[in-house]
Specification:
This protein is α/β, with parallel strands linked by helices. It has helices spanning about 35-50, 85-105, 120-125, 140-145, 150-170, 180-185, 195-205, 215-230, 240-245, 250-260, and strands at about 5-10, 15-20, 20-25, 60-65, 70, 110, 115, 130, 135-140, 175-180, 190. Belongs to the enoyl-CoA hydratase/isomerase family.
Length: about 270
């Protein structure tokens, strides 16, 4: 790959600019790049800084290690949830970070290897373009894992990209979509083998330097305005967010993850 213009690393998020393209890497491969609060904050900060950086004309998000893009939010962070404000605050936080990426004015590309689930699926959905290897598994299997729910905004984003039928399959049946099916559905723009995907995505991202900047910004902004007209207010899902996150089932599912304790769904 080409010589770095500049390179910055943190423990959990890498940041690299090459040939006018910013590469943001989620770097917790031992946890399949599950997102911590620090990682969400770092992504938000990079978005804020890159808006004003005229030397960067596109952004690529990717997972480090080859096994996952992002395997959701780190479940251990839910162990302290005890009141409705914890649940609503978390969903608002995710909405803010995902929304900032969604409205980022420059082209964004998700390079997806392996697991792209939960919070990772939300991040990938709002990128302008998605490119995957054959190992991609995309979905939100919370009906099997945690028993929580998405916010109304993230449900809307899934419907926009997957349609109603596939959104219900993803959320209610906990289905994970493979790369071939995602490509056929239009969720993934192209599929590449693992040994070439980084070079191919770099070529695609670098090509935006040769396109009219105002047209790119206008196109993205106007698509965003059209989608925004179909969405409800953020508090439209607060009742179900509170119900699910404050449930015995959710607490037991988190405890199973943290302490390896058995449980069965109770519906309470």
């Amino acid at each position: 790959m080409s010589t770095n213009d500049h390179l910055t690393h943190t423990d959990s998020v890498t940041f690299d600019v090459r040939n006018g393209v910013a590469w943001i890497g989620f770097n917790r491969p031992q946890s399949r790049n599950a997102m911590t609060w620090e990682m969400y904050d770092a992504l938000e900060k990079h978005c804020d800084q890159l808006v004003a950086d005229d030397s960067v004309h596109a952004v690529v998000l990717h997972g480090v290690g080859g096994e996952a893009f992002v395997a959701g939010t780190d479940i251990s962070q839910f162990s302290g949830f005890s009141k409705p404000e914890d649940a609503i605050g978390y969903e608002r936080r995710i909405d803010r970070v995902v929304g900032k990426l969604e409205t980022f004015p420059k082209p964004t590309l998700a390079l997806i290897e392996g697991a792209c689930v939960g919070g990772g699926a939300a991040l990938a959905l709002v990128c302008d373009f998605r490119y995957a290897t054959p190992t991609m598994k995309f979905g939100v299997p919370i009906a099997k894992t945690l028993g929580n729910t998405l916010s109304i905004n993230n449900v809307s984003r899934m419907i926009d990209m997957l349609g109603v039928a596939r959104t219900k399959e993803a959320l209610m049946m906990a289905r994970l979509f493979g790369a071939d099916e995602a490509l056929a559905a239009g969720l993934v723009n192209q599929q590449f083998d693992a040994d070439i995907i980084y070079a191919e995505v770099a070529t695609l991202a670098e090509a935006f330097a040769k396109r009219a900047p105002l047209t790119l910004q206008a196109s993205k902004a106007l698509v965003g305005r059209a989608l925004e007209q179909r969405r409800l207010s953020a508090d439209a899902s607060d009742d179900w967010v509170t119900t699910c996150y404050m449930s015995q089932d959710f607490a037991a599912a988190v405890d199973k993850f943290v302490n390896k304790t058995p449980f069965e769904w109770s519906g309470h």
